[in-house]
């Protein structure tokens, strides 16, 4: 797994993990019958208390994201295939604000990434892939008012995806630039 962690703003140090993000190595126990792997444990003490689990299949060259949720935390585990997971810290009070991280994951080397609300996130699939995803708020509850996004290739994100022309949903094709998303979120925030 290759992990790149970079600041997008001067004065921030590169190489430190984004605040609140956990990348867990999973142990696959194999024998003549197959294998068994624990994919989540409460004792990990992550930010996530899962409410909904989903199994997602993606075709090659598919990009999902960049999404941002302000009310729920997430879990991502690639079960089969090869992908990139990109995170950008958009939390105003975070010590790693404006930094990004890029993880390369393989289904043959199981890892789980758990991250808190307020991080823009997206995943790109090189091959046919299957991943598990969990959230701390059910989709029926956040689907309309807490499902924000920005352009995956916005230069202000600074994420070096190394890809061109991925397959996007119609919604992701219409996402605004990062600066517009952040301005909209700031304008919608309750004043103190």
UniProtKB/TrEMBL annotation:
Top-level taxonomic group: Bacteria
UniProt site (Participates in a stacking interaction with the thymidine ring of dTDP-4-oxo-6-deoxyglucose): 142
Any one Pfam family match given in the protein's UniProt record, by short name: dTDP_sugar_isom
InterPro entries, alphabetized: RmlC-like (IPR000888), RmlC-like_jellyroll (IPR014710), RmlC_Cupin_sf (IPR011051)
Gene: spsL
Isomerase listed as a keyword: yes
GO cellular component, one term: cytosol
Protein's recorded name: dTDP-4-dehydrorhamnose 3,5-epimerase
Group of enzyme by EC: isomerase
SUPFAM superfamilies named among the record's database cross-references: RmlC-like cupins
Catalytic activity: dTDP-4-dehydro-6-deoxy-alpha-D-glucose = dTDP-4-dehydro-beta-L-rhamnose
Keyword field: Isomerase
